[in-house]
């Protein structure tokens, strides 16, 4: 159990009972302090002496003081919960009223209009009774300083004191970073602005509000299912490039495309903001593998188009994988993570094509059909995909624009991947070097020392 670390004020409450003046100048009402237990950033519990069940005297109010520290407490949410103990009411039509106010206590008087305000201050009103015995209050970004909670039990409907009943209330007061941890459709984030630390909910799937509880613009279940299926199934467009790569004997490239298709599918299944979510491993791992596979697919395709020597191509593949992994660790969402490797690979391809053109003294690739039916369509599709990714994609249109991006990138690979390299007809296997045509065979018996070497017959000489 976590023990309280400090008392309710900045200097620490002592066990002295503070007295609050009432309308009657001849008497004062005591104020009970609270203990403070800090658990984490914007996570504080306030404990009452001899609590959490508190008895409310029938003739006066019970007042409690809660102190919020500057900077440390103002960026969270102050939560107040009251629950009436039904067994202590004894069948009376009793209501416990509460008034939470900053700076000074406000009291509810008998035979008066029940308002939690005065001429100079206003507070938050709470009440529990037999029909509704639980109430909750949440105050985002509360003002620092001392807050006072005044509780008074009165009989309904005339709001008179009941001298024969001492009501008992369970009170819980605590600080949290966000309201209900932002619920199912939100994520609580710790932010800093101009040296001011605060927590806020980042809502998803169209939900809004302090705790992501406003569903007026929320996405329906069918819409969430449709967006998830569209983002996942659009990766099946990598199946034709994989088949083309295997047929053309580009096995390394095909393995990269399979890796990309697999992790992109399950990353988008895990990345959904709503309740249609399926994660096979940690989200961060899926995201890294998806981004790495996407960039590696572009890298290996352009390097393969350059038609370099096998050893050079494999070295570039390895250097590209290591460099892209480092770049993704630095910034996964940077636009240059895509444009940088693409432009560098295009530069290598351009140099390789230029050198081959100069050596052969004709344009490379040499056939116009390759340019018209493969390179030009593939380049246009890839350029359209990059333009959508860089300039059109937003959070609102993400699910269908990104699905189109999947299909365009996969489609461009099928056009741009070069055909299988043809063997050079001028290169022929080396002919076997012929000897003189004869060789001396050692007789097995002679080798074993079983016969005289002088009686070797003509059978000991064989033709090669």
Automatic annotation (TrEMBL):
Signal peptide range:
1-25
Keywords, A to Z, come to:
Cell membrane, Membrane, Signal, Transmembrane, Transmembrane helix
Report the principal subcellular site.
membrane
* UniProt keyword annotation of Transmembrane present: yes
Tell me the membrane topology, using the record's own terms.
Answer: Multi-pass membrane protein
Localisation: Cell membrane
Domain EGF-like residues, every copy: 201-212
User: Can you tell me where the transmembrane regions are?
Assistant: 218-238, 250-269, 275-302, 336-359, 371-392, 398-417
UniProt key word Flavoprotein: no
Q: Which GO terms describe its cellular component?
A: plasma membrane
Q: Which family does it belong to?
A: Belongs to the TMEM8 family.
**What name does the UniProt record give this protein?**
Si:dkey-84j12.1
Q: From what organism does this protein derive?
A: Oryzias melastigma (Marine medaka)
């Amino acid at each position: 159990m976590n023990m309280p670390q400090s008392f309710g004020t900045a200097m620490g409450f002592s066990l002295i009972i503070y007295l609050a003046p009432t309308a009657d100048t001849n008497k004062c009402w005591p104020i009970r302090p609270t203990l403070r237990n800090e658990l984490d950033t914007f996570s504080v519990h306030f404990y009452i002496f001899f609590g959490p069940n508190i008895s409310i005297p029938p003739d006066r109010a019970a007042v409690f003081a809660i102190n919020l520290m500057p900077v440390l407490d103002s960026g969270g949410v102050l939560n107040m919960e009251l629950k009436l103990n039904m067994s202590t009411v004894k069948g009376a039509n009793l209501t416990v009223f509460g008034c939470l106010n900053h700076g000074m206590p406000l009291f509810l008087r008998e035979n008066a209009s029940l308002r939690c305000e005065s001429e100079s201050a206003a507070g938050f009103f709470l009440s529990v009774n037999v029909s509704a015995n639980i109430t909750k209050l949440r105050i985002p970004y509360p003002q620092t300083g001392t807050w006072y909670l005044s509780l008074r039990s009165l009989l309904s409907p005339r709001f008179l004191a009941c001298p024969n009943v001492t009501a008992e209330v369970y009170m819980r007061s605590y600080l949290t970073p966000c309201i209900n941890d932002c619920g199912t459709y939100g994520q609580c984030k710790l932010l800093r602005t101009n040296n001011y630390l605060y927590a806020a909910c980042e809502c998803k799937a169209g939900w809004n509000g302090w705790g992501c509880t406003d569903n007026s613009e929320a996405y329906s279940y069918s819409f969430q299912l449709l967006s998830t299926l569209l983002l996942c199934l659009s990766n099946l467009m990598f199946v034709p490039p994989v088949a083309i790569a295997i047929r053309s004997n580009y096995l390394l490239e095909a393995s990269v495309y399979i890796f990309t298709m697999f992790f992109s599918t399950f990353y988008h299944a895990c990345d959904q903001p709503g309740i249609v979510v399926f994660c096979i491993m940690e989200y961060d791992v899926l995201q890294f593998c998806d981004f790495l596979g996407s960039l590696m697919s572009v890298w290996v395709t352009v390097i393969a188009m350059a038609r370099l020597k096998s050893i050079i191509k494999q070295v570039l593949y390895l250097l590209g994988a290591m460099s892209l992994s480092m770049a993704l660790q630095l910034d996964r969402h940077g636009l240059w993570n895509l444009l940088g490797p693409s432009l560098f690979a295009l530069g290598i391809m351009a140099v390789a094509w230029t050198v081959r053109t100069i050596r052969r003294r004709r344009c490379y690739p040499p056939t116009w059909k390759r340019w018209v039916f493969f390179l030009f369509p593939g380049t246009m599709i890839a350029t359209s995909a990059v333009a959508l990714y860089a300039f059109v994609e937003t959070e609102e249109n993400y699910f269908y624009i990104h699905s189109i991006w999947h299909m365009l990138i996969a489609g461009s690979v099928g056009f741009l991947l070069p055909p299988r390299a043809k063997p050079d007809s001028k290169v022929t296997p080396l002919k076997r070097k012929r000897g003189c045509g004869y060789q001396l065979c050692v007789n097995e018996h002679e080798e074993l020392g079983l016969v005289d070497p002088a009686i070797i017959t003509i059978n000991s000489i064989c033709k090669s």
